[in-house]
Amino acid sequence: MSAPTSRTAIVTGSARGIGAATARRLAADGFAVAVLDLDEAACKPVVEEIEAAGGKALAVGVDVSDEQSAGAAVQRVADELGAPTVLVNNAGITRDNLLFKMSVADWDSVMNVHLRGSFLMSRATQKYMTEAKWGRIVNLSSTSALGNRGQANYSAAKAGLQGFTKTLAIELGKFGVTVNAIAPGFIETDMTAATAERIGVTFEQFTEAAAKQIPVGRTGKPEDIANTVSFLVGEGAGFVSGQVIYVAGGPTD
Ligand SMILES: NC(=O)c1ccc[n+]([C@@H]2O[C@H](COP(=O)([O-])OP(=O)(O)OC[C@H]3O[C@@H](n4cnc5c(N)ncnc54)[C@H](O)[C@@H]3O)[C@@H](O)[C@H]2O)c1
């Protein structure tokens, strides 16, 4: 389903991983895509790939947890690419530790990127959506929202994003804006590779062990999530709002 090229989508944390796959997919769907990440230079390869495939994209450096930075990035997207009416809050970090070893800095940085970042980006972007009487926000939650050892901070942030999603869906629905969350299971990215390293196993051992626990018998790829984002931001999903879609290769509880 292709969107009019006049529509602009922002994908945060899209220099790599799930965000990069989502940026490429939305560009293929016909959106002009703003590729946002901490380091603008790191966004350029994704932008070049999109342009080489005939799409339109812009690299923007941002720290989503910083009010000024988030506001300036959204303004730049509006000026240089067009009013953003799709926002994918994907930027994320992990700072895993058991509760007794978790520092306040580990707690705060995870809350700041996921929760404060999604709040700041949504607040800065919503006016373009309500003005257009059309919009789509997709927040990246996680199966960790249901509880995961060593992730008190991340789990709380990802569960928080589900409440945030439902509340925005209630507030923005009358403006033609839908708001949904995707809760991925195990997806092969640098984030899960870093977890394997932290617990001292190879990435191959880690994914093999994970796949055994997953009903479809494999771990997820960034494209599995990009496909679901593509559905949620498309015209056909206009009556789907306030939902959390678990994309995990099986039921989650
Ligand atoms: N990989 C998984 O198994 C998995 C599972 C469930 C949920 N998720 C979620 O999906 C999203 C993407 O995960 P991924 O696996 O692609 O991770 P990743 O680490 O590969 O990519 C995350 C990106 O976010 C960027 N980022 C971090 N802090 C930022 C900030 N303050 N401002 C802007 N950008 C920032 C990073 O630079 C990085 O490019 C995250 O929200 C993650 O929590 C991932």
Chain-wise SSE layout:
Blueprint: E1 8-12, H1 17-28, E2 32-37, H2 40-52, E3 57-61, H3 67-80, E4 84-89, H4 104-132, E5 135-140, H5 152-172, E6 177-184, H6 190-199, H7 203-212, H8 222-233, E7 244-247
Parallel strand pairs: 1-2, 1-4, 2-3, 4-5, 5-6, 6-7
The protein binds nicotinamide-adenine-dinucleotide (NAD).
Protein name: 3-oxoacyl-[acyl-carrier-protein] reductase MabA
GO molecular function, one term: 3-oxoacyl-[acyl-carrier-protein] reductase (NADPH) activity
Keywords: Cell wall, NADP, Oxidoreductase, Secreted
Oligomer: single chain
Spatial sequence of strands, sheet with the most strands: 3-2-1-4-5-6-7
| Number of contiguous helices | 8
Whole-number total of structural domains: 2
What ranges have pLDDT less than 50 throughout 5 or more consecutive residues? 1-5
CATH overall fold name of the largest domain: Rossmann fold
Name the structural class: alpha/beta
Strand content: 15-25%
CATH architect. name of the largest domain: 3-Layer(aba) Sandwich
Number of strands: 7
The geometry reads as: globular
Spatial gap, N to C terminus:
32 Å
Small-molecule components bound = nicotinamide-adenine-dinucleotide
Helix content: 40-55%
Please identify the top-level CATH class of the largest domain.
Answer: Alpha Beta
The ordered H/E elements are EHEHEHEHEHEHHHE
- Main sheet properties: 7 strands, parallel
Provide mean pLDDT, rounded: 97
